[in-house]
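Each lists sequence, tokenised fold; shown next:
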Amino acid sequence: MKERFPADVDYAVTLDTTDAVKAGMQEIVMTLVIAFVLVILVVYLFLQDWRATLIPMLAVPVSLVATFAVFPFFGFSVNTLSLFGLVLAIGLVVDDAIVVVEGIQRHIEQGLPPKDAARKAMDELTGPVIGIALVLSAVFVPTVFIPGITGRLYQQFALTIAISVIISAFNALTLSPALGGLLLRPKKTTHGPLARFFSWFNRVFASGTNFYLRMSGGLIRKSVVAVVALAGFAVAGVLFGKVLPSSFLPDEDQGYMYIQMQLPEASSIQSTSEAARVVEDVLKSTPGVKYTTTAVGFSLLSLTRSSFNTFFWVTLQPWEDRKTIEQEYQVIKAKLNLKLITLPQGTVFAFSPPAISGVGTSGGFQFVLEDRSGKESEFLVKNLNKFLEAARKRPEIGMITTTYIPSTPQKYVYVDKEKVLKQGVNLSDVYSTLQAFLGGQFVNYFNEFGRAWQVYVEAEAPYRANLDTVGQFYVRNNKGEMVPLAALTRFESRYGPEFKMRFNEYSSAQIIGSAADGYSSDQATAALEEVFHQTMPPEMGFDYMGMSRQEQKAREGIPSWVVFAISLLFVFLILAALYESWSLPFGVLLSTPVAVFGAFGLLWLRRTVLGMIFPAFMVQIENDVYSQIGLVMLIGLAAKNAILIVEFAKSKYEEEGMPLVDAALEGARLRLRPILMTSFAFILGCVPLFIATGAGSVGRQIMGTAVIGGMLAATGLAIFIIPALYVLVERVASARKGPAHASVEISEPHPVEAD
């Protein structure tokens, strides 16, 4: 189409709401690449063999490509949520392959041929691999049944991760041992800087393993300390969770924002246009703003047309061009509001679009005050003003206003029906004539230039500007005579609402606003409800619109703690069925509170540290949907570490007759390396989420912070108490059944020597 334009005419797309989606997907693809590289580096550091590293490296593309192939069966597309899930899956799909390769390599170092080593490793590891895959998949099963938008957000992550984990387990049981038998060889002595680094690393790792065994043995001897520590972590996790503000979805940088301008009631369109140009001048001088689209006489918030409203769509520069703090989305919005609030023309403020496009007309909150008694509009106006006055005093509320304009100057047309009848005029002709001349009336369509055009009739603007001209408008009576409308009507000056809004069939007023700096949307809406109960009479009610309504539905639906509890139950039942034991799942899942403590603790720490460096409006680390998805995921991740230790200890204790404590310590010693490898592979795979920038970065930061904090706690703290909890659970179970093994003596752990 541009080719047909004159040479001096061009065009620009001033607002494309899909830009944020495109930019977010590009960011996530880059995150995928970075995560893949970091995971491979971790695997190579621990395995110290490129052949061994190659096998987990091949597991990533196989699992991810196979996951894409399954998407159509669930109606999924390649979008930001599914790609987000794949970023998290990268650190998971290598886990099973790492465990298998480490097991094969360990047996090769003990003198077995590669193929025999692969067979023996699979005899030991088939159970743990299946158990880990089932746990990581089953933990997301309850989320599939959550209704509403929250459920859709959970489901994208849940099924993406579950599918990739199941495929990676199939890989680990088939492809990985086959490749291990073919590719792996005994290590050869090498020299050089890399060999010296690996030698130093192995010495440090051996020393760390000995320290780990000593600490684990001490906690087994003093199991009360382990139980007290576990209870302490659980209490601390709950406290951190309560301190964190809760919300639904973060206020993301979507690449654009809105501005609403409202002049005094009944201001002319000319004065509104002049005021709009002042706002446009402010936007032109604001760094980071690229385009402005202005709609004079319209408000997106109320979806009405009036002479004193103007709405602005403000498009920002691309994310890659906004690298400084001054050009951050929240900073631009805050600085604009500081400038706009000083404009004398009227009320002007900038605000965010809804977190999910199409769900409502604004970010923040949309509160609806309802008159459920059916009284006159004065009753609603009185209570609306009372409510707003009280709400503005609350520290949780930042900006708050209403789209309800109760006192707009109006002209009421009174038609004298007696005079109309005496003059022989049809009453409907009076009303249609008034509408045609003063408001405009549709006539018909006509075709010209290959298009259909609408025909309207109305009086010229000068004749509509003054009501005295109504005497120049005539209507025909039944005798064919022309009767002036001035003889049949009179005008009265009144004040009334610009428009009337009905919500749930009640006369209502929409209230919009946002939380104050440092407060979450949940805290703001809770404050509004508290103000309502304190100030409103029984005849009044309230409700929510847009994104706030979805947030309330999520709150009233299945609580996050119920989802977490059901996920725990699913994992417990899976483990009980897999190991045919009711006691073993307790030993596996008792370490979960440590992971929850780590997740909430790091979220709180990051929020606190950022709050010391940046203004409060730039800190959005909260307990929202993304952190809750991370918590559900941590159930499976924490259980994975415990399964690797407990499964091996159970085999040594029940099948080979090794003393209980010796079996627990042997399982801890042999499984420490794969636990650290898989955990750090996952943690480093999530680092790009932790430091994310650009479109959709806040959600990625929250998710990355939650899962990294949980895994650091599960890896750095929980692995010390897992052997003690396993021994304690087995002792309790044995006491209920009767003595099973005679020897439960504590033996000193054998020191580990460096390679």
